[in-house]
Design goal:
single chain, mainly alpha
Amino acid sequence: MPVLALVTAVLVVAFEQLVQWRYGATGLIGLALLTVGLKAKSPSVSSAGAVVLALLVAGPAL
């Protein structure tokens, strides 16, 4: 069981680093808002995070 928790933690940290490398600090803030909103079951916070991430991904296309 501790191995699964360690692998999960490594994957989460790697994903956060990938988002920060690709989208900068704004991407990390959007990911944090989305995660906190989902954990707190707050639709407004998670929606704000999702909008930030969507704008970052779709930004070059706009």
